[in-house]
Design brief:
heterodimer, A: about 625 residues, mainly alpha, Cytochrome C Oxidase, Chain A, two-stranded antiparallel ribbon, B: about 350 residues, Helix Hairpins, Immunoglobulin-like, 2 domains, 10 helices, elongated, disordered N terminus
């Protein structure tokens, strides 16, 4: 898919991608890996819906069903949504702020490979004695009780990929603080960059509690400690707190970038600047901040007492205010605009009412005494799918379509895109709307079957039919991607014609060094400002000079691979009959520490692209 | 008071919604057909929040429809719309109105949260250590079965919870292995049974509503607890106060069951060899909690379901005894009593089906 692919041959291209530290290629790696996991998670969802299509079904067994539901949730959140969000961030943010790359290109690659090996490890559980079966929340009493190694795969896999996420978050914080081009003040940053900034801060604070929780659980399961063992004085509620202190901000980590993407798309295809830009920024920051104050609303039925429940109920409701501000600002962005319904715009427009429905059921869930009814039923399943599919997945589908030309230099087919969109939209509402009522009619979540004659048959059947629509939409999307890649019709800088921000001022895909000369930003929607002044290019902020570039490196891959190897040793170490585990742990850690050592002692100053080469390079990059 | 005020104002809407929703689900299972004071309170709160939220959705939808139809770009239209920065007036409006709506919702939410957590009556004990005026049930959740102990009455049942109507029934909730969650959808929200320490709450069953549900409600486990999580059902039998007292007296007085017929007698012998270590057959089991490793079978013959999910027939009981793993994977009974011959299963079935306390 790379422009260089044809010239290089397969082996060289592969090596290029394995060692790359270029944010644009890492974005493609995230997109491919996240896309594959998304399809896998979707397949698991189809198993769930087929099993629940009719009462007393035996399509899958009870134990296997729990593995599927656990892996569906874990895969979709950690291995599909997160990396796809990172794909968008990597592809767009450095371009949007006019940077040459992220602040730490090496770490960027390390973050990807840690995520990749973590995800691979987790999914290998299917072939190595069974997947985790304690739910994506893995509540301590059940996860300690769960036999086999499934939960161990969950612990180690998430630990490794979580490290990757944390590294990526820190990287984007540093990038956005330090790498903005001259004139790109904070209050001129596009909303997607703003949401990336806030989300990176959330990652920085939210992932450590998960890491701590996983470490404690790992010690309990693998080394015989008793943090969560009640009989030995442990406490299982601590896990729930740690998990949700991570878990609730995680939801915002996913949705805020989607908000950012929609803000870009709605402004672009309305040919209008974002309505209430400063209040949008403020709302984003506020949502991020409040996101840390509300975790216990996942625990209203745990028995924390009326004081805690009341406080967390009120705090949760407060989030509705900044979210409402956003919804109305989006509507007013379109108001008075010149709205063009391209595929990304269709997703963005459909997102508004869909997400609003997920938002209002969120408020209903915040009403603690009413949540005693909703909690752990299909009402909650419906709610969070409305938020995550109607928000995050719509956002990612919109973002992938919108930025596809920037990432690959080609345009996805609009007709196939519209077929995908309509089937996905219809399927989505068909699947999840009815689930609100199933929950209220007494259907708990995470059940592998339900009895006949309990009034639940019709609703479940409708839901399953909807799921098939969604599966069809994804298949059409995949076909669309294949056709587009095969045809390979290249497009120019601003293929949508209405681009407003810096990334549309550069060729599609951009040259590996991004901007030849850093562009000067003269206002919000930097490229639009120039366009309105009758120019077609950005004004350069610096004279043409040598560009300092980082060298490619295989070390991020080997560092991550070492942890992947060591994890197998750690996992099987508790089995008495396996003697090879300790050597495997040692070998794995040696690979990791050795890679880190090489990285530390080997001087790697990168290289320079000389001015002369840049002036020859007429067809690539902006002529600034 | 506040709640009633809202109810009065929103009566027409509430009426319509109630009418629409009353068709939803069965009286014995659905939270949309509240069967007591607790469920009704929660239902009202849910309705209040639903109405507010439906209003919000309607406003957004109207704006949305106007926007997508009125501001469509015509083909070849190259005009640049006015670049509007924002509007303070509008932004204040859509900040303040949601805040007002939320305050309307917050007040009853906080009040009801505290009301429903009021279990003071459980702490008022008389000289003998019995609860003074309230009926207390200790619920113990186990891997795929429920135990209900009436500490003040000295009675234990399993799988079938018996409650008097028209009074608050207080619960101590705890789990003995992994976390479960105790939920009777029609009677009110759920509360988790933690492994750490007991939770307390109360429910109420309205006699009229109980009649509509034929005095029988479905209970569920709401927290993922393993392979048979979906099969961890129980039943709630609602009785009038008098009937309940009679039932409690009979249960308290029940002695070792006496069965009739040689087959059942034979079954009793097998039971006493293989099963009695875990299963008790009298409702006044005085052994400590840890010794009560399996459901109390004193009223087995009167139950609605076998193992919580199978229809109560001899045939199903035989299948269950032959291989419980098929019907409840991951249960703790599988593999504890070896292979049973068909004869032994028939004998056990005959015995178990005669285990009754109430005269029927």
């Amino acid at each position: 898919m790379s422009t260089y692919a044809k010239k290089q041959g397969f082996g060289a291209t592969l090596w290029d991608y394995l060692t790359t530290v270029d944010h644009k290629k890492i974005a493609i790696l995230y997109l491919i890996a996240g896309g594959v996991f998304f399809v896998l998670g979707g397949l698991e969802a189809m198993f769930i819906r087929i099993q629940l299509a009719i009462p007393n079904n035996d399509f899958v067994s009870a134990g296997f069903y729990n593995e599927i539901l656990t892996m569906h949730g874990t895969t979709m959140i950690f291995l599909a949504a997160m990396p796809l969000v990172f794909a968008m961030m990597n592809a767009v943010v450095p371009l949007q702020i006019g940077a040459r790359d992220v602040a730490f290109p090496f770490l960027n690659s390390l973050g990807f490979w840690l995520f990749f090996f973590g995800g691979l490890f987790l999914n290998l559980s299917w072939f190595m004695g069974g997947a985790p079966d304690a739910g994506w929340t893995s509540y301590a009493s059940l996860s300690l009780h769960s036999p086999g190694h499934g939960v161990d795969f969950y612990i180690l896999g998430l630990q490794i990929s979580g490290l990757g996420t944390l590294i990526a978050g820190i990287n984007f914080l540093a990038t956005i603080i330090n790498m903005r081009t001259p004139g790109m003040t904070y209050m001129r940053m596009p909303l997607f960059t703003w949401s990336t900034f806030v989300v990176s801060a959330l990652i920085l604070f939210a992932f450590p509690p998960l890491t701590v929780g996983l470490v404690l659980l790992m010690f309990d399961r693998m080394f015989g400690s008793n943090f969560f063992d009640v009989a030995a004085g442990g406490n299982t509620i601590i896990w729930e707190h740690l998990f949700w202190i991570f878990g609730h901000p995680e939801v915002y980590i996913l949705i805020l970038p989607a908000f950012g993407i929609f803000s870009e798309i709605l402004a672009t295809f309305s040919r209008k600047r974002l309505f209430g830009y400063s209040s949008m920024v403020f709302a984003t920051v506020l949502i991020g901040f409040l996101g840390f104050m509300v975790w216990a609303h996942h625990m209203f039925t745990v028995g924390l007492g009326p004081i805690a429940n009341a406080i967390f109920a009120v705090a949760t409701m407060a989030i509705a205010v900044p979210t409402g501000i956003k919804i109305f600002n989006w509507l007013l962005t379109m108001w008075g605009g010149s709205v063009k319904f391209t595929v990304p715009m269709l997703y963005a427009v459909a997102f508004i009412p869909s997400f609003t429905m997920g938002g209002v059921t969120g408020i209903m869930n915040a009403v603690a005494p009413a949540d005693y009814i909703f909690h752990d039923t299909y009402f909650v399943v419906a709610h969070f799918h409305y938020v995550i599919v109607g928000g995050v997945v719509f956002g990612l589908l919109a973002g992938v379509t919108f930025y596809w030309p920037k990432m690959f230099g080609t345009m996805l087919n609009e007709t196939l895109g519209k077929i995908s969109f309509w089937t996905f939209l219809i399927g989505f509402h068909l699947t999840f709307f009815i689930q609100h009522f199933l929950g209220l009619m007494g259907m708990p979540r995470r059940i592998f079957t339900f009895l006949d004659n309990q009034g639940l048959n019709t609703g479940n059947m409708i839901s399953t039919v909807g799921a098939f629509f969604m599966a069809f939409a994804v298949i059409v999307l995949v076909i669309n991607i294949i056709i587009t890649s095969v045809k390979n019709v290249k497009v120019g800088n601003d293929p949508w014609g209405d681009g407003r921000t810096l990334e549309w001022a550069i060729s599609s895909p951009p040259p590996y060094y991004n901007f030849k000369q850093l562009p000067l930003v003269r206002g919000l929607d930097a490229y639009w400002v120039e366009k309105m002044d009758g120019k077609t290019e950005m004004t350069p902020a610096e004279p043409l000079g040598d560009i300092h570039m980082p060298n490619s490196s295989i070390l991020p891959l080997t560092t991550s691979l070492g942890l992947f190897v060591a994890a197998f040793g750690a996992l099987y170490n508790m089995d008495d009959d396996k003697t090879w585990t300790v050597p495997v742990i040692i070998i794995g850690l040696l690979i990791t520490l050795g890679s880190m050592l090489i990285r530390s002692i080997k001087d790697d100053h990168g290289y320079h692209i000389h001015k002369e080469e840049l002036t020859d390079d007429h067809d690539k990059g902006v002529k600034a | 008071m506040k709640r009633k005020l809202h109810k009065w104002r929103l009566l027409p809407l509430l009426g319509i919604l109630t009418f629409v929703l009353s068709g939803c689900g069965m009286a014995s299972l659905s939270a949309l057909r509240p069967a007591g004071e607790v469920a009704q309170t929660q239902y009202n709160l849910m309705m209040l929040s639903t109405i507010i939220m439906v209003l919000v959705v309607i406003v957004v939808t109207i704006l949305f429809l106007i926007v997508i139809f009125r501001f469509r770009r015509k083909k070849g239209d190259d005009t640049i719309p006015k670049q509007v920065e924002g509007s303070h007036k509008l932004e204040v409006i859509w900040t303040v109105i949601p805040i007002v709506l939320l305050i309307i919702l917050t007040i009853p939410t906080v009040k009801v949260t505290f009301d429903l957590a009021d279990t003071k009556a459980m702490d008022q004990k008389d000289k003998e250590g019995k609860t003074k005026d309230a009926l207390v049930v200790n619920v113990r959740a186990n891997l795929y079965w429920w135990e209900f102990e009436y500490p003040d009455l000295g009675v234990i049942t399993s799988q079938d919870l018996v409650v008097p109507t028209n009074e608050k029934v207080y619960f101590n909730l705890v789990a003995s292995d992994v976390k479960h969650s105790f939920w009777v959808p029609a009677a009110g929200g759920k509360m988790d049974t933690n492994t750490d320490n007991p939770n307390q709450f109360y429910l109420e069953f309205d006699s009229q509503k109980a009649n509509e549900a034929e005095d029988l409600f479905y209970g569920k486990c709401a927290e993922l607890c393993g392979p048979s999580h979906a099969l961890m059902d129980f039943k709630v039998v609602a009785k009038s106060k008098d009937e309940f007292n009679t039932w409690a007296k009979e249960m308290k007085a029940a002695s070792e069951p006496v069965v009739e017929g040689s087959l059942a007698k034979q079954g009793e012998e097998i039971f006493n060899q293989s099963c009695i270590g875990c299963h008790a057959v009298t409702p006044n089991d005085s052994r400590p909690e840890t010794a009560r490793q399996a459901p109390n079978l004193a009223t087995f013959g009167e139950r609605e379901r076998i193992a919580g999910v199978l229809d109560h027939t001899e045939e199903n009981l035989k299948k269950w005894l032959e291989d419980p793993e098929v019907y409840k994977p991951g249960n703790t009974m599988t593999g504890t009593y070896g292979e049973l011959s068909d004869g032994q299963i028939n004998a056990l079935t005959a015995y178990l089906m005669q285990l009754k306390v109430e005269e029927k």
